[in-house]
Amino acid sequence: MPNAKNRPGNVDGRHMLRRCPTQSYGGARDEATLESGVPNLILVVDDDRHMRGIVALALRQAGHSVRTAEDGIDAIGKLAGESFDLIVCDVMMPGMDGRTLGQQLAEKPARPPLLFISAKEDLPATLPGAFLEKPFRLEVLVNLVAELLKRRR
């Protein structure tokens, strides 16, 4: 019996990476991006390069500009150099994990919204941001990102 990650339609980094170049995961485009012509800048933080690439590609296809970071320490460096509209961050990472990154950013007065992604379902109440459990459909991710960006305005 195939496990949940190998069933068609579920996110499996290797499986989705093969499909991404030929299939669009655009979902809902952010209205403000379409009106202004300026894409939102999103930081994707994940130690898994396949997942990081899949999420970044889906968000780019939805019309966003995307930067990536391998962990919380890398993200802090990117945040020092650019102003992001949203951060999509894995929770479990070596070095500085997503929870620690979120706690550090929560202390800042003007921080972008955070969307945490993780396979650990017992985390949402303890995180300073929205939560999406892995595995997830890329359309759900893109739509949730659009909603979080809309709320920010």
Please explain how this structure is put together.
The protein is of the alpha/beta class and 153 residues long. The protein has helices at residues 13-19, 31-36, 49-61, 72-81, 98-106, 138-152, and strands at residues 41-45, 65-69, 86-90, 114-118, 130-133. The protein starts with 12 loop residues before the first helix and ends with a helix.
Outline of the structure:
The protein is of the alpha/beta class and 153 residues long. The protein contains 6 helices and 5 strands.
List the keywords.
single chain, 153 residues, alpha/beta, 6 helices, disordered N terminus
Gyration radius, rounded = 15 Å
The strands making up the biggest β-sheet line up spatially as 2-1-3-4-5
How far is the first residue's CA from the last residue's CA? 46 Å
Structural class: alpha/beta
Query: What is the ordering of alpha helices and beta strands?
Result: HHEHEHEHEEH
Low-pLDDT sequence parts: 1-30
Major sheet: size, sense and barrel closure?
A: 5 strands, parallel
Proportion of beta-strand residues:
15-25%
Name the average pLDDT. 79
Helix content: 25-40%
Instruction: Choose one word for the global shape.
Output: globular
Task: Count helical runs.
Answer: 6
**Multimeric state:** single chain
What's the helix and strand layout?
Elements: H1 13-19, H2 31-36, E1 41-45, H3 49-61, E2 65-69, H4 72-81, E3 86-90, H5 98-106, E4 114-118, E5 130-133, H6 138-152
Helix pairs in contact: 1-3
